[in-house]
Structures are given as C-alpha cells and as structure tokens.
Design a protein that fits this description.
This protein is α/β, with parallel strands linked by helices. Helix content is 50%, strand content 16%. The protein has helices at 3-32, 47-62, 76-84, 143-154, 169-178, 193-199, 212-215, 260-272, 274-280, 290-293, 302-309, 315-318, 320-344, 351-368, 372-394, 400-428; strands at residues 35-40, 66-71, 90-94, 103-119, 134-137, 163-166, 183-189, 204-206, 223-227, 243-255. The longest helix has 30 residues, at 3-32. This is TAXI family TRAP transporter solute-binding subunit.
C-alpha cells in the first residue's frame, strides 16, 4: 500500500471514531438537556396569564425536562409580534390576530366571548344605544380593543359617536362602579371571576350582541354563541336567560423554529393531562378537540402536526439517535477490518506507484531528447505503459483510484513530448540569410 493510501485509511478510521463520539455526546446531551421556553400571555390578572400558569405547572410535573417561563404582555398583537421575532417561543392569541410569517399553530383552546356590561340607568339595550355614551375599553393592542371597532362599525357607529378610554380591566371595572363610564367592553372566557363580582351588583347588566351572520361577512373568524342562563349567578339568575353574543377562539401558537419535540410535548400536555389542567384552571376544560386544532387556516407547527397525525411515532423516528450511533460503530468496525486487510498486503508494492515512477523517469528523458527519432521512441514507451496500466486495471491488479492517480503524470509526460517536439522543430528551421540589397 502506498503512503497516500495509508493516510486515506487512517482518515476514514479517525472520521468514523469522530462520528461515533459525536453521536454518543449528542445522545447524552439530549437526554439530559433542560429546555426553557417562554410563553407570552397577557396581563397578570387576565385569563391568558392564568391559563399560562396552569400549563407551566402541569408541564413541570409531567415533562421535567421542560421549564415554562410565563411572560406578561399587552395582548394578542404583541404576542404575535413576539412569536414572529422569536422573542417568545409560545404565545396565546385570539384567532382574529393577523398571522405573521414565522408563526405556526399549536392548538385551538377555548372560546372567548364578547362581554358588553352596561349600567342599568344608562339605558343601553343594544350596541346602537352606545351612541352618546362613555365606554371603557381594554388597553390598545389587546384583542378586545381591536375587535371593538369592526363590531361598532357594523352597527353604524364611529369613534366620534361616543366617548371612549382604554384602560386596564381593573381600572375599567372601577370606573363603571364609580359611574365614570356607562359601559365596559371586554372579550374574555365565560365565567371570569371579575365579571362575576361586577355583575353581582344589580346596577349592571350584560347586553346581547346578535346579527352574527351579517358580522361574519366581514369578520369570518367570529362565532355565534350564548352566555347560558345563570352563568354568573344561578340564584338570581345572571343572565336571566340565554344571552346571544359573539365569540372568538383563543389559540396557542409557536415560533416555527421551536424544537418539534418540545411543541409535541406541550401539545400532549393539553390533551392528555386535561384533568390536571382543569384542577388548576377550570377554563382549560373548554380546550377544543384535536380535530378542531388542525383546521385553523394557517400552518400547524411540525411538532403539533406530529402529535395530531401519529398515534405512535415510527420506529425510525423513535430510535433515530441509537440507530445513528449503531451505524457509526458499524462503520468504525468495518473500516478497522478493511484496514487490517490492507495492512496484510502492504508488503506488495503498489503497481500504480511503479508506473508513476517509470513515467517520471520518462519525462526526464523526454526533456533531454535531441531528435525526433528519440522522441518517437519515448512516445512508444509512454503508450506501452498506458497499455499495461489499462490491462492491470481490467484484471483488478490496480484499483480505479490508483488509475486516477496515474492519469495525471501520464498527461504531463504526453504534454512534455508535444512541447519537446515544438522545441526540436524550431531548431530544424533554416536561418534566414540577409538580403544583399540591405548591405551597406
């Protein structure tokens, strides 16, 4: 075996060892890695934040390698932006929020209902009665704030038809109780405790919101629903009858680059640990079915899709890393056996090396050739070497790789012959004689 052949074998063995070590290291790292994910929710007193806390607690119990950091936020629009820029990994948003490029769906959670709470003495019985009134809205950028405007526009109102102020939910409720506003508008899950406390005061009532069919012509993500009789107080009851309202769905979304295994684990928490979630936050009882989560109008995250479409992962997916490790070890073993065989026959000189040495000697003779006959003889020798090499290649006495290494010096020798022919041709040309007319 030649020097370069031994170097090549050594490189293959070292590369195989490197692959095996890298596979083992990655396997150990992945088995022990702790993933910290950032979940953007909403204000600290809102339903999104409480929902996020429930997910964090149940995830910590059932997926010890995943830590959920619950983040406060201004609302759906900010959450969508944070997911798009990967400032957050997961987020809760309303399904009317415009979807951005790097955002993928994970699950449809629960319906959020439009709540218009008005003071009894304000005489607000429908949305058209908001004209000339004072309205408390949620903070700008929130889903509640953004959806209020297309809703009132449908009823023929503009922002100049009433007074409005955006404020936190707590400030809005305080303003209504103090008589500083006539109504509060908020989109929130059914049964919110703050709403219950507000409605316990007989001074306030829920206002119905209908015309859902017409609303869906411009806002197709809206759904028709009802606030069931007695939802906020069964004794009174509040409301006194089923109240027609409009709803949107809350969604769990993720950045497209979040690890699919992490997304799959979080999706599994939502559906397979529902009882644990409900014990922390009853709102989680309304999480939609997996079938509903697969038809959200924008792409599912790869990890969520894997959960929804595969009851059990394939053998290759489950054991990809052990298979990679086994393959690397197999390559290492085969390479070692192959090297051992090559070392056993290393005492036989590589024929291609001998041919290369013959050609190098021939090149030296070509450069020293003094006439065309000598050069022709060297050409015949060069062709004879080529013939022998081709025969040896055909009967496997040299390898295709050795043949490739032979072709380069052979081409050099062939070029040297042509070059020497040019030199000898120049020498054989007669020297021009000076014209006598040019002699002085």
């Amino acid at each position: 075996m030649g020097k370069w052949g031994r170097w090549g074998l050594g490189f293959v063995v070292l590369a195989s060892i490197g692959i095996a070590i890298a596979s083992i290291t990655k396997l150990i790292y992945d088995q022990n890695r702790i993933y910290t994910i950032r979940l953007a929710t909403g204000g600290p007193t809102g339903e999104y934040y409480a929902f996020g806390q429930a997910i964090a607690q149940v995830t910590e119990t059932n997926e010890p390698k995943i830590r959920v950091e619950v983040m406060e936020s201004a609302g759906s629009n900010q959450n969508m932006d944070d997911i798009n820029t990967h400032t957050a990994d997961f987020a809760l948003v309303q399904n009317d929020t415009p979807v951005l490029n790097n955002v993928r769906a994970v699950a449809q959670l629960y319906p959020e209902m439009f709540h218009l709470i008005a003071a009894n003495d304000a005489n607000i019985r429908t949305l058209t009665d908001l004209k000339g009134k004072r309205i408390a809205l949620m903070p700008e950028g929130s889903g509640s704030y953004n959806l209020f405007w297309p809703l009132t526009e449908h009823y023929g109102l503009t922002k100049y038809d009433f007074q409005f102020n955006s404020m936190s939910p707590t400030d809005a409720y305080d303003a209504l109780q103090a008589g500083n506003v006539d109504a509060v508008f908020r989109i929130i899950g059914l049964g919110n405790s703050s709403i219950s406390k507000l409605l316990a005061n007989n001074r306030f009532q829920l206002v119905p919101i209908d015309q859902i069919g017409a609303l869906q012509l411009t806002q197709p993500y809206l759904k028709s629903t009802v606030i069931p009789k007695g939802s906020y107080d069964g004794g009174s009851p509040i409301p006194s009858k089923d109240l027609p309202v409009v709803a949107v769905s809350s969604l769990l979304i993720a950045n497209v680059n979040v690890n699919p295994d992490v997304v799959k684990a979080i999706t599994r928490i939502l559906y397979e640990h529902r009882n644990e979630l409900v014990s922390i936050n009853p709102r989680t009882a309304n999480i939609q079915s997996p079938e509903a989560s697969q038809n959200l109008g924008f792409p599912l995250h790869e990890g969520a899709h894997a959960y929804y479409t595969q009851d059990n992962p394939s053998f290759l997916v489950t054991y990809a890393e052990p298979i990679g490790l086994l393959l690397s070890i197999s390559i290492l073993l085969c390479s070692s056996l192959w090297q051992g065989r090559q070392w056993l026959i290393s005492n036989q000189k590589d024929r291609a090396d001998r041919y290369n040495l013959e050609i190098l000697d021939l090149i030296e003779k070509i450069e020293q050739a003094q006439d065309f006959d000598e050069l022709q003889n060297l050409r015949q020798q060069l062709l004879e070497i080529l013939r022998k090499v081709v025969v040896d290649l055909d009967i496997d006495r040299i390898s295709p790789e050795s043949f490739q290494s032979f072709t380069f010096p052979w081409e050099v020798a062939n070029t040297a012959i042509r070059h020497q022919e040019i030199i000898l041709s120049g020498r054989s040309k007669p020297v021009p004689q000076p014209n006598s007319s040019n002699l002085v």
